[in-house]
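Quarterly update from the structural biology core.
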Amino acid sequence: MYPNGSLFTSFKTVLQMAVFVGIVALSLLTARPAFAAFGVTDSGGYFVVDTDAGLVFKVSQTNGDIKSLVFNGVEYQEPTKGTHINSGLGASTVTAATVGTDYIKITIVDPSVPLTHYLMARRGYSHIYMATYFTAEPSIGLVRFIVRIPQALVPNGPPQSDIHLTTTTVEASDIFALANGETRSKHYSGQRLIDWTYTGATGPNVGVWMVRGSDEGGSGGPFYRCLINQCGSNQEVYQIVNYGEAQTETFFRFGILNPYTLVFTTGGTPPVLDTSWFASMDLVGFVAPTARGQVAGTAITGRDPAYEYTVGFANTTAQYSATASDTTGAFTCANMLPGVYAMTIYKNELAVYTGSATVTAGGTASVGTIAITADPSTAPVIWRVGDWDGSPNEFLNADKVTVMHPQDPRITTWNPGTYVIGTSSSKTGFPCYQWANVNGTQTIQFNLTAAQAAVAHTIRVGITCAYAGARPKISVNSWSYPTNPASSTQPTSRTLTVGSYRGNNVTYSFSVPASALVTGINTMTVFPISGSGTTLYLSAGYSTDCIDMDSVEATPTMPVIAVQPQTLTSVGTGSPFMLSVSATGGSLTYQWSKAGSAISAATNSTYSVASTTITDFATYTVVVANSAGSVTSNNAVVQLSASSSSSSSSSSSSSSSSSSSSSSSSSSSSSSSSSSSSSSSSSSSSSGGGSSSSSGGGGGGAFPFWFVALVAPLVVLRGRSQDRSR
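Predicted structure, tokenized:
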């Protein structure tokens, strides 16, 4: 078919050439610019390190800047700036060494700080392990490591710190806005130190991550909020060792080796790192695990199950924290440097217990079971807005302020109106922040009983942070707190506008006199005061933790009846009547009784009947009581009126006269008189029944004994009078 095989031979040759070209092209695509073996070389003023895991990096021998980051054949380092400590160190001594067969250490020493920084590689890992040691603060006023990679290569970072599409500046030179007004900044991490172990960004087939270490040499404690990323033309990934923005501590910690690691992946999150081999790297400031100790607690009692509890340890040398068990409160804080530490237990972010612990090398300091003793939430209150947890999380806009500027259009209002106790919700009805020039007054409406309004009360206002010396002050009804509270110790930088409410928790207590309060509806106003600040969101302001009013009432004494209920002698059937009592003692209750039986719903200081019937003519008492005891009033009798009695007597007299005349014609005078008396009694009963019937009381029945006893003598006397007149 193919003469002499020439066509087949040509096809075979072409195929072989194609395969060869493909192999060459593939090798070019995956070729590494240095070498495909673990090691470090000295090349034209740079140390070039191959990790034998796809990552090759190049370090300047002048100042220790990383000038190249090649991962799987792609250059990720931004070309004009370095990846480095701070904004780059000054002239430094840079050396490289291979340790054993599997580790490389580059040491950078800047004598002007002084500061020592390490870049280390481990065979087979696409990581740059780092550690920074310094004994004084650099002149720039912070210690950080910053990685710079072109945004187009790793575009997928935290959106709230992505500024590359912003069009306007909102505040200072570090908060910006998109065309639609949404704000972006490197400050808006939305995370506390204990919330993250790594941060970074991803792109096609790559993930670039910063994995933090223990942060024992940092400052600000477990809830410190700090920048960790910014994406402009470059994706910048940070490791902050110490930083002054929103800093709650007045000092930085020196003489600590601070480890952290830059990790490259093919897009996934970073693995758990093993740094136990640091012990063999001869690092200045390194303290082996055997020279460290730990603190252990058996349990924490008195916890609120709605909150996480963190145990913090701090001294001037180091800081640590551990999370307590949700079920028992047990905790262990390991790998601590020896020393005496202040130990603080936090309910969320509020300190509710303070103590101390002493750590020894190789030892465990047992603190046993700890009882929470300083939780302000346990105090009885009449009302409370929010909760005592050291954060504004229960309030309006708290879910937004750590990831955006307060003027962001996604925040609909800072002025929700009057907060009504028992009706309003703190999530929608009370702002997490107050500024003098934005929402300077916030009103709270509440009800008090007479006993509650009769005594002085304490109103507590807790804040978590303040800017420009702001502090709260209150007024209640027409009364104002007479003095200005002192400002608290707080971070000196911006806080509320840069994503942090984390300052120093402070509680202000205001004593409100009874004269300022009323029974029923009261209105309180809380507002920030300060002599500092500028305008709007940079005016004096603070973050609210909780506001409440203590539960105090006038102490009851044994009730004393000052005015007894009075007997009523002239009540007509169908007419109204009212009995009343006046008593002292505080928080009084009342129960009226008729003829010894409690009257349903008769529980006021007065008892009234709108239309009296025969059954209402009776003896009444009232029991007055409070928590100190009870007292029973004197009897009060409700009697038939004289007009009703006279009408009954007239009718009885007429009947008596008729009976007496009839009897005298057939009997003797004495018999007649006797018969008249008997007849009068009978007539009186009949006449009384008719009178009762005409008044709507029903006819024909026998009258009560008290009625007969009242009317009969009158009838007899009238009859005798008529006899004498004859």
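The first strand starts at residue 39 and ends at 43.
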